[in-house]
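Recall the central idea of this unit: under ordinary conditions, the amino acid sequence of a chain determines the structure it adopts. In this exercise we apply that idea directly, starting from the sequence alone.
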Amino acid sequence: MLLLLAGVLAAAATGASTPPGPALASASALGVSVLVPGQPPSVAADSSAPSQVPTGALDAFAYPADGSLVRTGALSSSAAANPTGTVGAQAVGDVLSISLFNGEIAAESVAARARASTTGAEVAGSEVTNLTVFGAPVAPAPNQRHQLGDWGYLIVLEQATGAPVADGTRHAHGAVTALHVVLTAEHAGHPAGTEILVGRAEAAASTPVATSTPPRTTPKPAPPDRPALPPSKAGKPKPKPPRAVPGIGGPIFKTPPQDISAPLSPDGFVFPVYGDVSFGDTWHAPRATTGRHLGTDVFAPLGAPILAVTDGIVFSVGWNRVGGWRLWLRDRQGNQFYYAHLAAYSPLARDGAEVKAGQVLGFNGNSGDAERTPFHLHFEIHPVGLLPLGYEEGAVNPYDYLTAWRRLHDVTFSVGRGWAPPVPPSATAPRPAALLLGSTDISSASGLEPGSLERALVAPVSAEGDGALLTAG
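Accordingly, the structure predicted from this sequence is:
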């Protein structure tokens, strides 16, 4: 199955004809999700399809027990997906009487609606009613951003839709989150990096697209005074290969192979690319667009499965003009791993998703500024103990770790700097993953672009919505 998937993607990149994939449909919705670094997510009124949880409901929700972070009235969600017949998916989430941070953010109600079908995706009908921020009324608008003092930001009706076509299949995807709060510094007793999602709906449908074979045309005879070229010399125009990822309208989603077995190192780490690969130590090598290289490029065939290197939570899934289709993974101790230049995502690649080491997050490609380079994964490591230094100085050379994980060994994150936080003997994360001291948002750091940290300190989130690295400080 792995070879079949790689062959399908490779054929798409070379312009060869491939049969369309099977129809797929999925949907998920939730009332509230609270993500606190180092803790399991707290989720209320969640549902998904085609799993066995089509609806979810709750009379009220409070987190923590005193409701100081989140307090709501009734919550409900539903999800439906039909991969046969009239293919489509629909997700609905509703929450009443929302109060965040003891009323600093409040709303009468929110509604999240997402639909996907053979023709496309939409989030029509999503709304936020009577929203107030610090007591002032706010007129909601899609992807509207509000700075919350010096401790965080709020995104209202955060949404994205797209329906790209690849490999003879239309991949329609729509997602909306009514209220999304991110703490960039400690606030009300809750650490930086805490995220709150209120009212979320997501739907996806992958359906074959009918294609017609163009009619054959008889070539015109050559003029009498010029003999026709023999067939061996006439030549055929080379078809222009389509891009592996069609624009920024939406990512391609692929169903991952089911027969992948990725062996774990003794400490539970996995090499991030499945199958035959090649890579070298290019740490701090010059780069035309990014100044210096802060990661390792792992070269592999187009469509090679990209794996979670450890157990953790996925975040910042989406497009970045330098990294292309990219994502971040944060492990249980706060260490962060950056993946760039993907050609497609798996269904696990969604913000807030919990994953296990070895699960497929996406597929190898060359999106972003790598589209004229061989297919590869750009991979970075940012230990939690170095996050106070920011994006560039807080990264470590991944080469030794990749080499060790390839051999089913482990390498500690010890960097030999006296100011790094001490590592408790009981720590199980890569050293010096000791503790998260607090955070300053540098979420607009592109993951590959020079100077992004400095710009992020002025404007914490870019127009691209590149929620990325969080630093301790």
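The radius of gyration is 24 Å.
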